[in-house]
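Anyone have tokens for Protein translocase subunit SecE? Sequence:
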Amino acid sequence: MSTSTASTRGSADEKPKGGFLGQIVLFIRQVIDELRKVVRPSRDELRSYTIALVVFLAILMAFVVGADQLLVHLVDWVFA
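Reply: yep, here.
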């Protein structure tokens, strides 16, 4: 079973015609075909992904700051 892009543009196994220039043209066509397959998130999805990322980073940052403070106090206690 082949997709419409594979049947109209050629498959990945196709030997490019025209040598080096043909390889460049084939590569650009394949890049464009792959970019057409990309599903872009909606505004609401993007907003929820951004909020989730910011919350995750805040939690991770709090953990690192807490671990750093713990190590500072531990080193201070050992060497003081």
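Residues 43-79 form the longest helix (37 residues).
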